[in-house]
Fold:
Amino acid sequence: MKGKIVFITGGARSGKSSFALKEASKIKGKRAYIATAEALDEEMKERIKLHRKHRGNKWDTYEEPLKIGTLIKEIHGKYDVIIVDCLTLWLSNLMLNNKTIEKEIESFILSLSTIHCSLFTVSNEVGMGIVPENEMARRFRDMAGRLNQKVAEIADEGYLIVSGIPLKIKIKGEE
Structure:
């Protein structure tokens, strides 16, 4: 049996992670949370601490900034639900570590085709603002848009979170 993939996107601080936790917590069984953020400064350390507190102890947490596709392949059979939070931070990590982004995205997408549990992916929608002034920011925006499209395409459900309000934007078979 193939697992269910749920894609959740929206702006910064829109409530994406809270929505993912709320919906994924409805699924009974073992739970895993893949966090892609790295605690590189005090402010980010505090954010990570708050996210952990919000999740509580009902989730096994994996901190993986780069190899989320590999990690999903390793753990998906052990869990009933997995959250990946967040794809845009993962993309940023790949860029800053000079990884081959297209290859990493393809590997991640392939890992999703093997899952047998429910998987929630959280990603920022970064393409609704102004065109960034520098090349790296434009490249990031473009790659994030492509990544989001690829995940949304294979997702069974998709949500856009706006000001804490979830808008269902996709149900497989109704697109």
User: Anything to note?
Assistant: The mean pLDDT is 92. Helices lie at 16-24, 42-55, 68-75, 87-96, 101-112, 135-154.
